[in-house]
Structures are given as structure tokens and as C-alpha cells.
Amino acid sequence: MCYFISLIQGREQMAERQSVLVINHTSVLKLYQKKLEILSRHEELAFTLLVPPMWPESGFPTSIEKTRDSRYRIEVARIFFPGSGTRYFYREKIGSLIRELQPALIDLVEEPWGAVS
């Protein structure tokens, strides 16, 4: 959370909104998008969430519950090995999103030993 605060505190020097890319497979559930809903109140930051179209939760395939929000952008991308927290990785979009957004920060909400990391 402190890295978001430092971006916000430096806003006096910002000429434009700072882009933040959030990568989080658990955000297929709208409950796990709550952090973005709160942080996106800061208009100096432009959030983009990258999430797979589905992820097994409690043993059941769960499709993404929320695909739009007026406060931040949601990008859905296919993955290899859905359900495997250590082996899964994105098949598409991640490189093009980084080139397009040129984010000031990438918030990778994943385990450090996972292939996606």
C-alpha cells in the first residue's frame, strides 16, 4: 500500500495521471476488486486490472464476476494452466498492455515463485 501513497504524494510534479497495472487472478471475484475501488478514488492514478476470464475458487470454476467499472479499466486475458497458482501465466495482452500503458507501477498480486511472476 505504501507504494501507492508515494505515487500520490508525488502528484505535485505530475503533469498527467500515472498509470498503474494491477495483475491479480483472484480478482475474478468482485470482492477482490475492492482495493482498486478504494484506490481509484485518487484521480491522479489511472488503474488497469489484468485478470483471467475464470479461476477455480473453492474447487469450482468461477467466471469473472465484474468486467466493467467506471473508475478503472478491466482487461481480461486468457491464461495457460488455470487453477495452478504456481504454473499459470498469461497467454496474451500482458506485453501489449505494458507497452501501451507504460505504467509507473506494476502491482503483481501473485506468489514470487509462480510462473506469472
Element layout with pairings:
Elements lengths: L1 H8 L8 E6 L10 H6 L5 E7 L2 E4 L2 E4 L9 E4 L2 E2 L8 E2 L3 H8 L3 E4 L9
Parallel strand pairs: 1-2, 1-8, 2-5
Antiparallel strand pairs: 3-4, 6-7
Characteristics:
alpha/beta; 28% strand; 117 residues
Mean pLDDT score, rounded? 86
Listing every helix as H and every strand as E from the N terminus to the C terminus, the arrangement reads: HEHEEEEEEHE
Main sheet overview = 4 strands, parallel
Helix share, percent: 10-25%
- Ranges where pLDDT stays below 50 over 5 or more residues in a row are none
Spatial order of the strands in the main sheet? 5-2-1-8
Classification by helices and strands: alpha/beta
Query: What coarse outline follows from CA principal-axis ratios?
Result: globular
Measure the end-to-end span: 19 Å
Number of helices: 3
Radius of gyration: 14 Å
Task: Work out the number of β strands.
Answer: 8
Strand content: 25-35%
Could you characterize the architecture of this molecule?
The protein is of the alpha/beta class and 117 residues long. It is 19% helix and 28% strand. Strands 5-2-1-8 form a four-stranded parallel β-sheet. A two-stranded antiparallel sheet has the order 3-4. The longest helix has 8 residues, at 2-9. The model has no long low-confidence stretch (mean pLDDT 86).
